[in-house]
Amino acid sequence: MKRRSLIMGGAAALGLGWLLRPGERGADHSPYFQQLSAALESANLAKPSLVIDRSRLLENIQTLRKHLEGRFEYRIVAKSLPSLPLLGTVMEASGSNRLMLFHQPFINQVVLRYPGADILLGKPMPVAAAHNFYRQFPGGAFDPQRQLRWLLDTPERAAQYDKLARELGQQMPVCIELDVGLHRGGVTNDAQLVAMLDLITRSEYLSFGGFMGYEPHIVKVPIGSAETYRDRAMTVYEHYIEVAKAHLGALWPEDVVLNAGGSPTYEMYDEGSYPVNELAAGSCLVKPTDFDLPTLADHVPACYIATPVLKALDTLQIPGIDLGAVQSIWDPNRARTFFTYGGYWKARPESPEGLVNNSLYGRSTNQEMLNGSRRIHLEVDDWVFLRPTQSEFVFLQFGDIAVYDKGAIVERWPVFREQAA
Ligand SMILES: Cc1ncc(COP(=O)(O)O)c(C=O)c1O
After folding, report:
1. Which CATH class is domain 27-48+302-413?
2. I want to staple 177 with a disulfide (CB 3.0 to 4.6 A). Which of 71, 153, 362, 385 is the partner?
3. Where are the beta strands (DSSP E) in 79-185?
C-alpha cells in the first residue's frame, strides 16, 4: 500500500472513531436535589447520610394499599426497612401490624418497641438463635406464644425447635417454608411436609401456624412468562395446603398464615384468585435501583445517599499510566473529576445527572472518584446523591437516617443495632 493511502486510511479511521465517541451528557441538580441539598445544609449535615423522602415513602404505601386492599393482608418486610421509627411509620400508614423478620437481634428490638406486632420469620433460624431470642427477651406486653411464628424448613429443624420449646416450657407457633419454585429451601415433597406436620401435632409445645412460600423467581426467570411461573408456584402452594388440610383436619388453624410475595411480585396478584391470604413487601416502599422493575412502575424512589464533594478538578488525572487525559479526550463525560466523602457503596450515582465511576482509577470507601462532563458545575462542599441498589444492608451504614419532608430534614431515625448474641 502506498504511504499516502496509509495516512489517508489512518486519518479516516481516526475521524470515524472521533464521530463514534460518547456524546456529552450531564446536568446540574434539578430543583428537587437543589432543595434537598439546602435542607441537608440547614440541618448541619456534612457527612455521608442516608436520606428518606417521607412524602414519597407515604405515596408508595398508598400505592401498595391500593393494590392489596380487600384482597390480601399486608406483611411488612422489616429487613428492607431496618429502622424502628421507619417501621413504625409504615405500620401506621399501612394499617398493618404484621412484620416479617430475618435477624434475631432485630426481633428482640422490634418486640420491645412494638409489643402489638404479629411476627413471622422470613427464614429458618438456627435453633440456638431462637434460644437467644428467649434469653434476651425481658418479658412485657409482647406474647411470643401468640405473636411470634418461627419458620421451619425440615423435619430435623422441627425436632430441634420441639426440644427447645420443651426445655423452655414455651408454646411456639411455627410456619412451614414451602419451595414453590425458588429452590432456596423449604418443603419439596408431600412426605417431608407430612413428617413435619406429624412432629408438630405430636408436640405438646409446637403448633402449626401456616406456610411461607416466597416466589421472586417468577419475574426473574429469563425464559417464559411471569404469569406462567406465578400460576405454577400457586398450584404448588395450593397442593401443599390441600395435603396439610387433609392431614390436620380440625387442627387446621382458623387464623392460618398463608404468606407469599415480595416487592417484585406483589402486583402480580392484582387480579385472579390465589390460595394465599397475605403478601409481604418492603423494598418497594423506598425503591432502591434493584427494584426499577416493570412490576413496580408505579412506585417512586424514596431513598438516597447524600455525600459532600471534597475535591473538584477540571481535569482527569490517573497516576502512572497517565491515561486520564486520553479517557477524557475520548469521553467528554470524564472531563471533570470529583472526590466524594466516602464511597464504594452498593449504590449508583443519581444527581447531578451523568456522574460515572472510574474503574481505571479504582473504587474507594474513603474518597471515591466520580467523573462528569463540563455541564456539571459541582464544587467543593456541594452534595452528590446516589441511589442505593438495595436497602437492607446499605441503610445500616450511615447512622441515623435523615428524614426529608417538603424542603426540610424533619427527623432523624436510628437504624437497627447489632447486639451481642
Ligand atoms: C421470605 C421473603 N419474603 C419477602 C421478601 C421480599 O422483600 P422485599 O419486598 O424487600 O423485596 C423477601 C426478601 O428477601 C424474603 O426473603
Report:
1. mainly beta
2. 153
3. 98-101, 118-121, 148-152, 172-177
